[in-house]
Amino acid sequence: MEETNIVLGPVTSLLVWRAAMAGMVDMPYEPLRRPDRMRSIARVRSVRGLDVIRQLESMGGIPLDVTVAQSKRTHVCNSLDVIMLKDQLPDGSLFAVGEGAYLCSPELCFVLLARGCPTLHLLKLGCELCGTYSIAPDQTGSFVNCPQLTTVAKLSDYVTRLGHRHGVRQARGALEYLADGADSPRETALYLLLTMPNRLGGYGFRRPELNGRVDISEYAQGRLGKAYLRCDQVYRDKKGNAIAVGEYDSNERHIYLSNEVGETVFNVEKILSDDERREAIVEAGAEVVTIRTEDTRIFAQMDAKAMRLGRAAGCEPRASIGELASKRMGLFYEVYDAWVWRDEYELLRSMAGYTRVIRRGGSREDA
Question: Helix, strand, or coil here: 365?
Answer without folding.
Answer: strand
